[in-house]
Amino acid sequence: EPLFEGYIETLRREAECVEADSGRLASELNHVQEVMEGYKKKYEEEVALRTTAENEFVVLKKDIDCAYLRKADLEANVEALR
Questions:
Q1: What distance in Å separates the CA atoms of residue 28 and residue 37, rounded to the nearest whole number?
Q2: Distances from the Cα of 56 to the Cαs of 52, 53, 65, 68, in angstroms?
Q3: What is the pLDDT along the chain (82 residues), one digit of tens a residue?
Q4: Helix (H) or strand (E) holding 19
Q5: Radius of gyration of the chain (CA)
Q6: pLDDT confidence of residue 1
């Protein structure tokens, strides 16, 4: 009987340690999930900014192409007039 009581007491202490670790790990998990959500939100914002920048780039490239063609036309007209 004393042998079993010692064994039971040891198991109780181990159970208490496991419970304490469980609480600590749950808290740590919540913290990591909050950090992950923050990074996820920032990533989504960056993706949106990238899309906007790419769209602006396409528009600017079209404008530059038009301006270059117009410049070439004007230069051709100048040469024709000379």
A1: 14
A2: 6, 5, 14, 18
A3: 889 999 999 999 999 999 999 989 999 999 999 999 999 999 999 999 999 999 999 999 999 999 999 999 999 999 999 9
A4: helix 2-81
A5: 35
A6: 86
C-alpha dihedral (60, 62, 67, 68), degrees to nearest 10: 110
Closest CA to 19 of 7, 9, 11, 8: 11
Show the tokens assigned to 8: 């039971």
3-state class (DSSP) for residue 82: coil
User: What gap in Å lies between CA 69 and CA 13, rounded to an integer?
Assistant: 83
Cα-based distances in Å from 26 to 5, 58, 70: 31, 48, 66
Q: What is the pLDDT of residue 68?
A: 97
